[in-house]
Design goal:
Belongs to the L/F-transferase family. This protein is α+β, with helices and mostly antiparallel strands. Helices cover about 30% and strands about 25% of the residues.
Length: about 230
Amino acid sequence: MPVEPPATGWIFGDASAHDETDDLVAIGADLEPGTLLEAYRHGIFPMPAGDAGDPMYWFSPVRRGVLRLDDLRVPRSLRRSCRDTEIRVDTVFAEVVEACADPRRPHGWITDDVAGAYQRLHALGWAHSVEAWQDGELVGGLYGLALGGLFAGESMFHRVRDASKVALVGLVDLLREGSAEGPRLVDVQWATPHLESLGITEIGRADYLAALPRLFATPLPPAFDQR
């Protein structure tokens, strides 16, 4: 089981009480493991405001991008890519985060502080990487937090075509293991046309927050419960 870190002194409160036209719900706090878990348990996640030294921004999207396991779309070309790719879990977590944080990527937001925060969560058993490998090389992957039946995805990358999509298919396969024990859901924060093509849909903030208690009560998938 993941190790529970010291509790945070920050209070995030009920995200549903915030303006229904604004995804931003808090500014400040820190990136300690206890703070991050408290935020995720309230349906909130961090992103840097911009320049180094600026306070952290915390978001709970009014329209949340989610993937229900049965909604995943895997076209024929992606199935071929899956056959040529090996899925591994947590073998090179730091390398996956580093690839997602590559400053050459457009709209990059993963700072050194953010990367370090999720590596601390990984060491405690909360953050995980799902990796796509071909011929012994890492070609794509994703990382995020596993909290019961919820996988809160943070970022993904690819070095060959479809590799990040293959990692997502691999994640869904992992979440399906033991899924009869309770609901499972992938949170992708915001939906994009690229993600929607794979079956991601949007739900309202209130519906997302209402789903969290049952998701958290679901046992972790075996792949993420190896401590």
